[in-house]
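User: For my dataset I need records formatted as: sequence, then structure tokens, nothing else. Please produce one.
Assistant:
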Amino acid sequence: MSSLWHKVLVATMGLALAQAGYARSQPSSASIRPKLLSPIAGAELVEVAFEYKPDDGLKPDCSHLVYEIYRQAGLNFRFASSRELYGGIAPFQRVRHPQSGDLIVWRGHVGIVVNPRDHSFYSSLRSGLMTDYYDTAYWNSRGTPRFYRYQLSGRDAAPPQLVRVARNTTTSNEAREIDVPKRDSSEPVRSRYVIGAAELPAKPSAEDFRSALIHHIDESGSALESSKHFDGSSPLLVVDDVDVDKVKLRKDQGSLEMRLQCSLAVVDGQVNENPISQTRKLTLRRSSAGWLVEDEEAPLYVPRQEALRIFATQLAAVTRENGSHEDVARLLKILNALAPE
């Protein structure tokens, strides 16, 4: 099971990634507080982990693996054994609830949390560099793990922009704009949601909104995962990356443009393959809870790193339940479009 799960995740995230370092800036005040790595940066760190390949081709031990992955992402710390990490070292802060990219540490073993919802982590195991589940009987027998999150220096005004997924776009295969029609009015639509006040600073920038919107798209993918199957009646976008520009804020109202770079879209039951671009204009309104976002007649969003796993699971369910040939064919076409060459 571990090997299969690893293959699914590698296929999902097996895109070329560019190495990046800290985004340094001069501190404006000595009172700047250290910040923990954001959920978005943590998810990007997981992508770095799946792309990591040892220079000498030999499998590193677990401690050296996490050290090298963090170092390639520009997150530096002194090398430490898993037993040292279990006790805690700078610049990591122990946390109760893990997020993607956090360290998971037992006495004698360490890995990187992939997805806390399904208790998966990535590490150097006997069978190789792969993903396993920390709630299995074996790992439970190792004792209760500790979770640590990377803490940025007080000199860093903002979390580093670790990685942006590199898209294979060329002059002969440029992303084309696609028109996504409105949903049927009888369908439930998640076109209005709140970005919590804690997620954004008092004067949010385009990059602040980008991080919050990526988080929203991740949650939308989780909602799709809970459904039994996708019949293609609702417009759907498989999202690779998000750009935000034209942010306009005036007192308690505003707007922004969100440009989505997508692997594929499903519109009117038809699968439109990579690469696809779509721009959506969102209206903003400040409330006591945060910023209320209105995405008129929003399609279903699913992040690329979740899509392959979700649709593979749905294909298995539809096949097991003797679903329609049309549903099977649609899911197969989606999976073929998402799978690496």
